[in-house]
Structures are given as structure tokens and as C-alpha cells.
Amino acid sequence: MSTLGLLGFGEAGYYIGKGLVQEGCAGLAAYDAALGTDGPYRQTVLDRARDAGVATRSSVAELVASSDIILCLVPSQHNEAAAMSVLPHAGSKTLYVDATSSSPLLKERLAKAFKDKGVRYVDAAIMSAVPADGHRVPMNCSGDGAVAFADAMRPYGMRITILDGDPGLASRIKLARSVFMKGFEALCIEAFLFAKTVGLEKEIMESVSASFGKEPVETMMTRMMCTGAIHAGRRAHEAEEARDLMEAVGIVPTVTNGAIDRLKRMEALGLKEELGGLPPKDMPALYGLWEKKKFV
After folding, report:
1. pLDDT of residue 32
2. Most buried of 13, 127, 136, 248 (most Cβ within 10 A)?
3. 4-172 and 179-293, same CATH topology
4. Are the C-beta atoms of 9 and 74 separated by less than 8 Å?
5. CB proximity list for 281: less than 8 A, separation 6 or greater
6. Nearest to 73 by CA among 88, 83, 85
7. What residue spans define the domains of the chain?
8. What is the pLDDT averaged over residues 218-235?
9. What is the per-residue pLDDT across 112-157, written as a single tens digit (0 to 9) for each?
């Protein structure tokens, strides 16, 4: 039976660790850099560990010594330092699972460093919200240790999808998805900041919710993008009107300005005239037009 060590015990580590303990995952331990400080976050980590039933370790070396699998959950800006702190203590029996949101290029470089030492490396991408799903949060995994990680953790309910590819593949998928998810989050913030300012937050929430409920999201996105080939100009003008109203009430239209720029770039392709005012029939047809026009 493999033992799991959590490197980083913030929100993700807490929810994943707590769920795994409840599933009967024995010997689970964690180390967080905050444990080596006197700051207020140290107590937060200790309280979370106690609540989750997860043991704490006093150092990275101690965590690696007591664990067959290291699941790294540190913030992405600390990923390289965390990986390098593990490497001197890791051996051929260690499985290092990098579940940070770091760039594929960094993960490729780290994978090479671990491979050079004979340590298996997994590029793991968390694909949903950990507080909502806990240890069952979907994970895409690529790299030479992906199968071993899945075999060890699936019995405890972890939802691991193995990708046929090298480290970096899982992260590329995640970051491409992040363009939508983080962009959508920023759009929601801007739209409802504006709606609240003008006293229309309830009406806008109801209207947007109704729009999303009419059809599958994939159908809606396909329709919007394909019709955008011919209606981008009109939509850009409407967005400009909204931007002007936002500015009039003191809201900085960061996302809206980006939307206007992207729609105008789409309009500049000249597809409305080329297609005779008829939208492409599906996404492959639209992708073909983008490629033909070198749309970037």
C-alpha cells in the first residue's frame, strides 16, 4: 500500500486530505512551509490538519522519507522551489505528482530534472473546484508515473484521467480551459459590479441565468461563435455602448474593452461579406476560416 504526502496544505490540500482520510487512506501526512514560521497561517495549517485527520511533518525531508507519493499542491509561483526541495531526498521509489497550476514549459523542465535522478514525475491538472469536490475533484494526469498514481489513489475515490502524453500535456489542457474559466470569472465580476452600481443586480442575474438554461452550454457557445463570424461588428458596437455606460457610472471596463477588441478583430476578417451573411454551419467550418485568415 502506498503512502501519500501532501506538499502544501492550503485549501486544496485540506479538502483533498480530509476526503482521503474519510475514505480510509492511512498514513496520510502533510508539510507546509508555514509550519516553519511564527506567522498566523501556521496555526491555520495546524487547525486544518487536526480537523482533517492528517499528520504534519516538520520538513520536506521528513515528508519524503515517510511517503511513497508526494502530491504537490503549493501555489504555482512556488512550484519550482518546492520541487527542488523534494529532489535531493527523492529516490527511485518516489512518485512525484505536480498538481500545481504552473506552465507546461516549467513542468517539462521539472520532469526532466526528476527523470535524470530516476524519479517518476506526474503532471497533474486539477479540472474543477476543490472545495466543491474534495478528493473527488477531476484530475488529468500525464507522464510516466500517471498510471501508478491512478492505481494507488482510485481505490480512495480520486477521479484520475490518464492522458497518453508526456508531462506538460495535462497542464496545457488546464491552461487552455483557464482562458475560459478565469475570463468568465472576470466577466462576471465586471458585469455584476456594474449591475450593482446601477441597481439591477437581481434583474441581470435572472436574465443571464435564464439564457444559460435554454440550451446546453456547448450548443450556446457554438452558436455564439459561429454567428459571431457575421455579427461581430454589431456586437462590438453594442459592447461599446455598454462600456460607455459603465464609464459614466465610474466602472473601469477592463473585460469589456477586451471583448470589444476581440470582436472588432473578428469583424476585420470580412467574413460577413465573404459568407453572404450566413454563419458557418459548425465549429470545424469556423476553425477552417480562422486558419485561412490567420486569425490570432
Report:
1. 97
2. 13
3. no
4. no
5. 226
6. 83
7. 4-172, 179-293
8. 97
9. 999 999 999 999 999 999 999 999 999 999 999 999 999 999 999 9
Grid cell, residue 7, equals 506538499
Domain 179-293 has CATH 1.10.1040: yes
The whole-number pLDDT of residue 14 equals 98
Element housing 7 (H / E):
strand 4-7
Cell for 16? 483533498
- CB-count exposure of residue 45 (10 Å: 0-12, 13-18, 19+): buried
Class of CATH domain 4-172: alpha beta
Task: Write out pLDDT tens, residues 19-62.
Answer: 999 999 999 999 999 999 998 899 999 999 999 999 999 999 99
Q: What is the mean pLDDT of the chain?
A: 97
- Distance of alpha carbon 18 from alpha carbon 22, whole angstroms: 6
- What count of Cα atoms within 13 Å lies in the side-chain half-sphere of residue 68? 11
Contact 286, 249 (CB under 8 A): no
**Structure pTM?**
0.83
Identified catalytic residue from 115, 174, 182, 292? 174
- For strands 29-31 and 4-7, give the pairing: parallel
Question: Is 117 known to be catalytic?
Answer: no
Average pLDDT over residues 205-225: 94
In sequence order, which residues have a C-beta less than 8 Å from that of residue 270 and are 6 or more positions away? Answer: none
Mean pLDDT for 181-198 is 97
- Which strands make up the sheet holding 160-162, listed edge to edge? 55-56, 29-31, 4-7, 69-72, 95-98, 120-126, 139-142, 160-162
